[in-house]
Design brief:
6-stranded antiparallel sheet, single chain, mainly beta, 318 residues
Length: 318
């Protein structure tokens, strides 16, 4: 590990924290804290204002909040897929819906590769296992500059066989005071992937004109709309798509990503049984592939032996 500044948290004490080691970076009014379990974005602020829903260092991370999703984002239906003519069965990590959710690294301890004042690099290896018999190294970089926080996830296939791959982040964005219902969303997507109401299994890609409740191409308040869908057909400027979330006062947060992420999952964090976290942030998850891509093959990355793939996204204050 390369050390550019003194650790923000004592190493021994950090080892006892439920979310792992705490890696704090800061620059240009931004401050981020990365928790080593899941390479999770635990805190992101600008001039003291939260841009994502944080969680405490010494708590089990709530669900997938802020984690790095790999080697697939979202769901694999029934935890089953066929790749290279071989059928694989994964653990059902979303048992209530019978799905394999958000990959294999969310509860993995990442090691430090580089720790500087404004940049950290962490890495973990997915070892061959039941359901995913491939060896893939996953490296993630978090970097701050005047334009915000930039995360890049790079996969390296260390094995002898081609491996299916997809990735994305899982931050819950915060525009300012209030909850999701109070904020205005701009989402430049012309298509939505419809899903079954019970298991959220993919059904079909349809135009948002057929589903006006999910048409946010013209910015408008989210109000009481429920969203837990993947979107595509993204309008871009200079190859970059931007999702914007703002308050009535005009403050807010933006997430940007290029063509390496042709999909974005958006979720209004509905949890009516727990009022304290119900709709407190908007999950915005750029993805290299859609839900269940291991089965559909849509935008699935196939990593040849020795090959690498990188994808990145950014979060900035408005």
């Amino acid at each position: 590990m390369t050390q550019g500044a003194a650790p923000a948290v004592d190493v021994v004490a950090a080892a006892r924290l439920r979310s792992g080691r705490q890696l704090r970076i800061a620059a240009h009014g931004y401050e981020a804290v990365i928790a080593s379990v899941g390479a999770s974005l635990r805190v992101l602020t600008h001039d003291g204002r939260d841009l994502v829903v944080p969680f405490d260092a010494d708590e089990v991370r709530p669900g997938y909040r802020g984690t790095t999703l790999a080697p697939w984002p979202n769901r694999i239906v029934d935890g089953r897929y066929t790749f290279g003519g071989v059928e694989h069965r994964l653990a059902l990590t979303e048992p209530t819906r019978g799905q394999a959710l958000h990959g294999l690294l969310s509860w993995t301890e990442f090691e430090d590769r580089l720790v500087l004042d404004d940049r950290v690099v962490l890495a973990a290896v997915i070892e061959p296992q039941t359901g995913y018999p491939f060896r893939v190294e996953v490296e993630t970089e978090y970097r701050l500059d005047a334009d915000g926080l930039h995360q890049t996830v790079t996969a390296h296939n260390l094995g002898a066989d081609a491996a299916p791959w997809g990735t994305g982040p899982h931050p819950y964005l915060v525009a300012g005071p209030g909850r999701v219902d109070d904020w205005t969303l701009a989402l430049p997507a012309s298509d939505v992937l419809t899903v079954t109401p019970d298991r959220l299994s993919p059904v079909a890609v349809e135009g948002v004109t057929a589903h006006p409740q999910w048409d946010f191409r013209a910015a408008r308040p989210i109000a009481d709309v429920f969203i837990d869908h993947a979107f595509t057909g993204l309008a871009r400027e200079g190859g970059v798509a931007e999702v914007r979330l703002v308050t009535d006062a005009g403050t807010g947060v933006a997430m940007t990503f290029d063509e390496r992420c042709p999909w974005v999952q958006v979720h209004t964090a509905d949890n009516p049984e727990i009022a304290a976290i119900h709709r407190i942030g908007l999950a915005v998850e750029p993805m290299t592939c859609p839900p269940d891509a291991f089965n559909s093959g849509t935008d699935l990355v196939v990593l040849a032996p020795g090959a690498a793939h990188a994808a990145s996204w950014s979060i900035s204050a408005i």
